[in-house]
């Protein structure tokens, strides 16, 4: 990955607070809708799942694929986003 | 296989741990994922086991082939297989077909024993057998026939030292592959038969070739085999699928041996070829750089050659016969022999003279340009004539005439490179010493001697390099000298400015002190002071001499520019002295009164919870800005005192430094809480008309600036003046 997206940077720049799940890098409207319907309505819920999976990239991407049919690019973006956020704030 | 879906969380976790997977919490959201993971793990493990089974299934399928084998295997189990091989070997050589079969059988068994890894076979292995294809058969045949005898001989000799029980696998090979010379159909039939446990029949016709092979290559050790298997990488054309299928086809041994054959031969062949290919690869890689380098070199060589060619052209031209010769008679009435034209009869003599003196001139020029400047770079006419006279018996007048003619020719033929020069200018010849035409030569000749010289000779390379180097060195020296001068000038200018400024500062300081003294004196009874007394009050005894110049300047400054001081002559103790009388009144007091150097109230709220102060202080260090307007020592002391007075009674301050360069006050408190208190006490206050702002400073930056600041207290800094409650 050469550079990160603006969305990624925005997310990683500050505590996530009550941000919706669509604020996560790699998650757009469609994936966001699917995640919300699966019960993951806020970014911190996804973060919880991310942490429960012990920041394991493979498992997290697998989970995203299962939950919202994310492709590998999207899930990798999302993983990286959460990972960097954790590096910064956790 | 366990039904993964029906596992409980606990079982799922245990299973995952069994498969070496890190423990994860299994929750509603992760259960599905973990099941999936477990399934994948189990499948991958099964795959691994299956592939293992493939490789170890040889003896298993062998065992299925015939029950007799099994029995013999049991029989040989105990006995060391080395012995059995040794015993059977002579037999094999002279035996009939029948004995061969038995031997090979036994040998096979020993082989099996060795490779019995104890893994149980799986049914799939044999099922794959049905996918036996003629194609693979063909491959197989090719590989067996490829197996050439000389190779085996070398290998056996090579590994004869490591004679071990496992040597027995060569006979297996030969017996197994009775078919390399037989046709494919028969071979296939045999395979099928062996699959149908009819192995005995398949050994009925061992061809002579097999026997030969057997005889020649009995000593291939397992070690070799393993080595070859490890070391060989499947070739591109090597169909791994075929290999697998083949393996299942008859039994493991065949496939094993076949791969052995293939690999063995490849091992032998490939080694050199590998080296050669790697060498070739390396050469190819090197080749590009070498070629590039070569082209690079060639370019410079070409340039050099062209350069020399260009230079040599001038020299070569001398030898050309096509000289430009102004003949007398053609030139019209004003043609004068020996001045601007030459008689036909004298041409040869002149050219000969030129040819004669040219080398001498070149030699002189070269030795002048190269070795020593003692040798003159030119020949005078007299010298030329003398030289010529030693080889030519002509008398002097005729030689002088030749000389003139030659000079005329030299003017007309610039390519000869011979020039007439003035000799009175010393040895340093340049273009301006060269005569333009024969007339000026004639004029010059009356008073001085004319010289002949080669101005730009072909110097030897070393000499030329040396000259260039000298020139370079000289110019570098000049450049260096210039830069040095510039640098020194610059440094001198800076120093002068510095010195001037310093003196001025000292004078001002002196004036200030004088005014202070006068002012304080003015408050007392006497309102004038003898000037020399003032000096004695201000300057210590040892400094009076050295500070005299500054003192005088200060006195002059005061006399000229200080309106509050009047210089007058008063009689003090019966003697007239120059005195200073202090006339100043408070209205004229220019320096700001100490009263104004004070805290003047708060600009904005900085108490806990306000937007202007951080919720918690990150470091114990503070940087206070806006306290200093101008920088001098008294001022900084004053400011330090003001800061301490403001906050030292509320918090513990370890260090307080005033930096007059950055015009900041630096505070180091005992801990973060103290820093927060100091922050709230200083931030947003007015101090002598300036708004004070405070920032937190990282500890390491602080320690960088003030390395001697205390790390921990006590003692803590306290204000000299009694603390005032500013918060009201």
Automatic annotation (TrEMBL), chain A:
Main location: nucleus
InterPro entries in UniProt: BAF (IPR051387), BAF_prot (IPR004122), BAF_sf (IPR036617)
Gene Ontology cellular component terms for the protein in this record: condensed chromosome; nucleus
Gene Ontology BP annotations: chromosome organization
SMART domains the UniProt entry points to: BAF (SM01023)
Keyword Translocase in record: no
Keywords per UniProt: Nucleus
UniProt organism field: Photinus pyralis (Common eastern firefly)
Top-rank taxon: Eukaryota
A GO molecular function held by the record: DNA binding
Pfam families assigned: SAM_BAF
Protein name from the UniProt record: Barrier-to-autointegration factor-like protein
Cellular compartment(s): Nucleus
UniProtKB/TrEMBL annotation, chain B:
Protein's UniProt keywords contain Transmembrane: yes
Annotated InterPro entries: INM_ESCRT-Associated, LEM/LEM-like_dom_sf, LEM_dom, Man1/Src1-like_C, MAN1_winged_helix_dom, Nucleotide-bd_a/b_plait_sf, RBD_domain_sf
Origin superkingdom: Eukaryota
Major localization listed first in the record, in broad terms: nucleus
Membrane topology: Multi-pass membrane protein
Listed GO MF terms: chromatin DNA binding
Keywords associated with the record: Membrane, Nucleus, Phosphoprotein, Transmembrane, Transmembrane helix
Compositional bias of kind Acidic residues: 113-122
Subcellular location as annotated: Nucleus inner membrane
UniProt GO cellular component terms: nuclear inner membrane
Keyword Coiled coil appears in the UniProt entry: no
Transmembrane intervals: 287-310, 469-489
GO terms (BP aspect): negative regulation of BMP signaling pathway; nuclear envelope organization
Sequence segments annotated as region (Disordered): 48-122, 141-185
Protein name: LEM domain-containing protein
């Amino acid at each position: 990955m050469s550079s990160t997206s603006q969305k990624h940077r925005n997310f990683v720049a500050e505590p996530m607070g009550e941000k919706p799940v669509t604020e996560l890098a790699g998650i757009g409207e469609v994936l966001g809708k699917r995640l919300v319907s699966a019960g993951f309505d806020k970014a911190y819920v996804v973060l919880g799942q991310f942490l429960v999976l012990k920041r394991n990239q493979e498992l997290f991407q697998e989970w995203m694929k299962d939950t919202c049919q994310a492709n590998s690019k999207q899930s990798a973006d999302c993983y990286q986003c959460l990972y960097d956020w954790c590096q910064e704030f956790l | 296989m366990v039904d993964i879906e029906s596992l409980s969380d606990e079982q799922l976790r245990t299973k995952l741990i069994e498969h070496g997977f890190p423990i994860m919490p299994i929750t509603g959201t992760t259960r599905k994922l973990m099941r999936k993971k477990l399934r994948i793990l189990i499948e991958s493990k099964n795959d691994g086991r299956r592939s293992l089974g493939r490789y170890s299934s040889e003896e298993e399928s062998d065992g299925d082939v015939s029950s007799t084998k099994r029995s013999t295997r049991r029989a040989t189990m105990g006995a060391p297989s080395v012995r059995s091989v040794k015993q059977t070997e002579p037999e094999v050589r002279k035996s009939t077909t029948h004995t061969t079969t038995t031997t090979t059988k036994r040998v096979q068994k020993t082989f099996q024993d060795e490779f019995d890894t104890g893994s149980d076979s799986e049914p799939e292995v044999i099922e794959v057998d049905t996918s036996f294809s003629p194609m693979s058969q063909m491959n197989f045949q090719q590989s067996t026939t490829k197996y050439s005898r000389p190779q085996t001989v070398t290998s056996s000799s090579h590994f004869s030292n490591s004679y071990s029980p496992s040597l027995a696998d060569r006979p297996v090979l030969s017996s197994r592959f009775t078919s390399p010379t037989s046709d494919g159909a028969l071979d296939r039939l045999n395979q099928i038969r062996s699959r149908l446990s009819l192995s005995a029949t398949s050994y009925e016709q061992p061809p002579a070739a097999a026997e030969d092979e057997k005889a020649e290559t009995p000593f291939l050790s397992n070690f070799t085999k393993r080595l070859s298997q490890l070391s060989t990488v499947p070739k591109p054309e090597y169909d791994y699928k075929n290999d697998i299928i083949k393996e299942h086809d008859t039994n493991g041994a065949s496939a094993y041996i076949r791969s052995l054959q293939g690999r063995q031969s490849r091992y032998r062949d490939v080694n050199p070829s590998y080296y050669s290919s790697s060498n070739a690869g390396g050469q190819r890689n090197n080749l590009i750089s070498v070629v590039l380098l070569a082209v690079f070199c060639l370019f410079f060589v070409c340039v050099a050659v062209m350069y020399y060619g260009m230079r040599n052209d001038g020299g070569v031209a001398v030898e050309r016969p096509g000289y430009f010769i102004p003949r007398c008679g053609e030139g019209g009435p004003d043609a004068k022999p020996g001045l601007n034209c030459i008689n036909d009869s004298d041409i040869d003599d002149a050219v000969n003279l030129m040819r004669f003196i040219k080398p001498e001139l070149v030699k002189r020029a070269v030795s002048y340009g190269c070795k020593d400047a003692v040798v003159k770079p030119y020949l005078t006419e007299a010298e030329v004539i003398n030289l010529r006279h030693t080889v030519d018996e002509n008398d002097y007048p005729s030689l002088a005439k030749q000389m003139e003619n030659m000079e005329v020719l030299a003017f007309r033929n610039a390519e000869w490179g011979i020039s007439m020069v003035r000799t009175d200018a010393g040895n340093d010849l340049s273009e301006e010493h060269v005569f333009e035409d024969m007339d000026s030569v004639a004029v010059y000749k009356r008073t001085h001697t004319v010289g002949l010289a080669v101005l730009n000779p072909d110097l030897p390379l070393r000499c030329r390099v040396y000259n260039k180097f000298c020139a370079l060195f000289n110019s570098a020296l000049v450049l260096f000298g210039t830069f040095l001068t510039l640098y020194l000038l610059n440094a001198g200018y800076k120093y002068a400015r510095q010195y001037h400024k310093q003196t001025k500062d000292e004078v001002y300081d002196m004036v200030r002190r004088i005014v202070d003294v006068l002012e304080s004196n003015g408050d007392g009874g006497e309102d004038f002071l003898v000037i020399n007394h003032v000096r004695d009050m201000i300057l210590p005894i040892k400094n009076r001499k050295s500070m005299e110049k500054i003192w005088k300047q200060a006195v002059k400054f005061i006399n000229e520019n200080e309106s509050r001081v009047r210089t007058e002559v008063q009689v003090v103790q019966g003697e007239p002295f120059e005195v200073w009388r202090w006339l100043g009144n408070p209205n004229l007091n220019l320096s700001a009164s100490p009263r104004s150097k004070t805290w003047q109230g708060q600009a904005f709220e900085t108490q806990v919870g306000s937007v202007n102060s951080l919720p918690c202080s990150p470091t114990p260090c503070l940087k206070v800005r806006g306290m200093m307007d101008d920088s001098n020592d008294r001022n900084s002391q004053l400011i330090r005192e003001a800061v301490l007075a403001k906050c030292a009674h509320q918090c513990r301050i370890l260090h307080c430094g005033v930096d007059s360069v950055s015009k900041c006050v630096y505070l180091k408190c005992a801990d973060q809480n103290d820093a927060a208190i100091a922050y709230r006490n200083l931030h947003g206050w007015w101090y002598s008309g300036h708004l004070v702002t405070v920032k937190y400073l990282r500890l390491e930056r602080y320690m960088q600036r003030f390395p001697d600041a205390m790390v921990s207290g006590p003692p803590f800094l306290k204000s000299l003046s009694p603390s005032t409650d500013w918060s009201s």
